[in-house]
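Render this sequence as a predicted structure.
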Amino acid sequence: MNTHHFLLVIHLLAATVWVGGHLILLFGFWFKARTTKDINLIDQFRKRYEL
């Protein structure tokens, strides 16, 4: 495997993790925060998962 393919695989794995995190945020927290009108749920998510 040459360098280009290796970097492509790394990029695709990182993009998958990034998109997955946003889907967790959307389906797990955003809808609940929207229906309960509690913005603290989003803040708790951010504090837990952001560096």
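Summary. The chain has a mean pLDDT of 87. Residues 3-36 form the longest helix (34 residues).
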